[in-house]
UniProtKB/TrEMBL annotation, chains A, B:
CC cofactor: Mg(2+)
Any GO MF annotation of the entry: magnesium ion binding
Record-stated family: Belongs to the ComB family.
Keywords recorded for this protein, A-Z: Hydrolase, Magnesium
Protein name: Probable 2-phosphosulfolactate phosphatase
Keyword match Magnesium: yes
HAMAP family, per database record: ComB
Keyword field contains Hydrolase: yes
Enzyme class per UniProt: hydrolase
Length: 240, 240
């Protein structure tokens, strides 16, 4: 099994994604929020790329959510904080979500065989789900403004490490050099992920805007067992 | 001072290099070999991109060196092993060198203000030289076949860490997220760099071809004090 990490959306070429399981990671905060909303009973998440698309797609009873520059979009029901997707108000509802990087990464991955959403919150379960699909895997870091992002990279390192643990009996578990480097980087920060995320540029930006709690929450490993999967334009809980 | 790491030659955009000091890294083996040849008295290294250019550029008394697919080029005096550039035969000679990735990276950096060649061999001295130039720095990993390479990334992590140590009194030392991740990855392998290089894909490829000694030599930290600098198409020892 080949497990390659792709550094940012710009570097995702269709050829690398076809016939693979793709794990999209946007730790701060899109995939963390999608995982959280599904864990709290949202019926599904419809990720769209633009604000206009979100407005057009929203039907009565939907929740419109998302951000631009980390802030809630005017007129939307919710922003991109996972804490906004925990209450009763989410239960049974469809969420139409647009974020700066994460939703775009999901659409970019649409050539893939299967698309899963990963984050620290569901890292082990996400790795287990991807591993059981028995296809080569691409771990796509959403990044920030088309740039490599520390927090996604660290989470990719954890997920690759977990995939290798699951495949330890296999002769043919391979990763690319970026995957190897990210496993090393994850090992360096193992046991202190919240501190690492609060110190990185994406975490500091959110903390300055008052979202330090979001960063700490998103740094929690394996706190949620839901693995979102892309089915007919929607992210739904993977049925195991 | 801004210190950005660029993952591979393909990602080097001229705008990121202009007005900067660029440190080009090709640990296995171009920059390690260039550093070694200058340390052993070569009068200068002329890096060229193609075999044809090397043949055209070579004058009487020059050494022609380089590789394709890690192997010596037919008709050339030497390959790309640093051990070939240590003897008396190199002393006082100009070396015309063409390698698959490293020489291309040096040419790609030509928009930079100053170009230095870095490797584990001269990491601290290279960082000190770049730091003293007081410009923003780009650390350009040469990579392999346009892909991110583990060994260059690890060396970039060491050099960024060293630059931050030198600038620890400064308020404004900044790196990009890739730089932060690579410092973490370097820290994880600190004290065991030869083992890390022998286990990575580039190191294993060379070991299979009989160059395990090259890999171990190139993993030596601060064993050479020469810092090559690009002057009029040549790599010459930086005069401190």
């Amino acid at each position: 099994m080949q497990v390659d990490v792709i550094a940012s959306v710009n570097e995702a070429r269709a050829i690398e994604l076809a016939n693979r399981t793709v794990i999209v990671i946007d730790v701060l905060r899109a995939t963390s929020t999608i995982i959280t909303a599904l864990a709290h009973g949202a019926s599904g998440i419809l990720p769209v790329e633009t604000v206009q698309q979100a407005k057009q797609a929203a039907r009565d009873g939907d929740i419109t959510g998302g951000e631009r520059n980390c802030k809630k979009i005017p007129g939307f029901d919710a922003g991109n904080s996972p804490f906004e997707y925990m209450g009763e108000s989410v239960y049974g509802k469809r969420v139409v979500l647009t974020t700066s990087n994460g939703t775009r990464a999901i659409h970019k991955a649409s050539k893939a065989d299967v698309i899963l959403a990963g984050a620290f919150l569901n890292a082990s379960e996400c790795a287990r789900t991807a591993y059981q699909l028995r296809k080569d895997i691409a771990v796509l870091c959403a990044g920030t403004q088309d740039e490599f992002a520390f927090e996604d990279a660290l989470c990719a390192g954890l997920i690759v490490a977990e995939l290798f643990r699951l495949g330890r009996q296999e002769q043919e578990m391979r990763t690319n050099d970026l995957g190897s480097i990210l496993v090393s980087a994850y090992r360096h920060h193992e046991g202190a992920i919240p501190e690492a995320l609060l110190a990185c540029s994406g975490g500091m930006r959110l903390a300055k805007l008052g979202y330090a709690n979001d960063v700490e929450y998103c740094a929690g490993i394996d706190t949620v067992s839901v693995v979102p999967v892309w089915v007919q334009q929607m992210m739904l809980p993977f049925a195991t």
